[in-house]
């Protein structure tokens, strides 16, 4: 079951299961928000109308596939996903209750300000598979992993091959193109999963993340087309093509870093997931700094007469220049 309810900071939203449609005697899933906006879901027994009568007690509900999970989209809507085996639960669901209220200053639940209820019939059966929240989280991780693999690993490594491995001609070009093709394939798959994810999840700042992601996708397509239509080495416009290709490549890789961090923030990624990307980025920046210094040292050692356009310090590449 997936339930969406309006929810604001310092408020609570609950769904209850009752035998007679009354709050007293029911069992409720009550959701509040943590200081960072993450949903906190607890199960309560509503023994009477007093504050002391609202007792945290999950023993009356038997959940299938793990405890309830929640997602908050920052648009004041919370999505709660859970599965209950009522054949093994002492709580009964003849009636569904929905209520909303405020929190006391100590975080405890105040009396409800609004309540809705409706009669329901639960058909016994067996439910298998993942909860909707788990599927949503898995989609989010797949999308993020594909984009990090494409934009955060394969394309930067391919770009460094094009800049620093030109002494291994023509092998560097084929290695470079291989990395870029694999990276572009990951980007396409990541965009596809992102479009599907956006249909189910509408968090705050999604428009910025999606807009920047689509802009980056367009830049990636332009880079692929630029490689297909690159002029010959001795063509007069080859210099301008190099400037364009290198400039777009730098812009794309920089904006990709920004959008990856934005996506990690929107998806509330786990710390291990964030740390993994930060480590990848740090290693790439360190490698770039070391290789760039070595490249300039080698270039400065060359006699001025030998510093031709091809032998000089090449522009930063994203797609090859042979």
Automatic annotation (TrEMBL):
Keywords: Electron transport, Iron, Membrane, Metal-binding, Signal, Transmembrane, Transmembrane helix, Transport
Location of the DOMON domain: 1-101
Pfam families: Cytochrom_B561
Subcellular location: Membrane
Residues that coordinate or bind heme b: 143, 176, 209, 245
UniProt GO MF annotations: metal ion binding
One GO location term (cellular component): membrane
Name the UniProt record assigns to this protein: Cytochrome b561 and DOMON domain-containing protein
């Amino acid at each position: 079951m997936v339930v969406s309810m309006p929810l604001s900071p310092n408020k609570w939203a609950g769904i209850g299961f009752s035998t007679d449609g009354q709050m007293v005697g029911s069992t409720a899933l009550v959701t509040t928000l943590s200081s960072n906006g993450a949903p906190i879901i607890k199960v309560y027994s509503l023994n009477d109308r007093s504050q002391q009568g609202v007792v945290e007690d999950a023993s009356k509900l038997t959940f299938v596939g793990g405890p309830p999970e929640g997602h908050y989209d920052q648009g004041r809507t919370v999505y709660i996903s859970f599965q209950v085996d009522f054949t093994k639960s002492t709580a009964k669901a003849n009636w569904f209750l929905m209520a909303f209220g405020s929190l006391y200053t100590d975080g405890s639940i105040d009396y409800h300000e609004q309540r809705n209820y409706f009669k329901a019939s639960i058909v016994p059966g067996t439910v298998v598979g993942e909860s909707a929240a788990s599927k949503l989280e898995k989609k989010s991780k797949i999308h993020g992993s594909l984009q990090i693999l494409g934009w955060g690993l394969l394309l930067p490594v391919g770009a460094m091959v094009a800049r620093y491995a030109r002494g291994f001609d023509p092998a560097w070009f084929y290695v470079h193109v291989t990395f870029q093709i694999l990276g572009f394939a990951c980007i396409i798959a990541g965009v596809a999963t992102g479009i599907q994810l956006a249909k189910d999840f509408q968090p705050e700042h999604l428009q910025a993340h999606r807009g920047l992601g689509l802009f980056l996708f367009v830049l990636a397509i332009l880079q692929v087309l630029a490689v297909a239509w690159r002029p010959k080495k001795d063509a007069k416009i080859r210099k301008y093509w190099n400037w364009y290709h290198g400039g777009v490549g730098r812009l794309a890789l920089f904006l990709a870093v920004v959008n990856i961090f934005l996506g990690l923030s929107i998806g509330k990624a786990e710390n291990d997931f964030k740390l993994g990307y930060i480590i990848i980025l740090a290693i790439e920046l360190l490698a770039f700094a070391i290789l760039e210094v070595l490249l300039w040292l080698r270039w400065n050692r060359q006699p001025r007469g030998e510093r031709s356009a091809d032998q000089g310090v090449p522009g930063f590449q994203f797609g090859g220049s042979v």
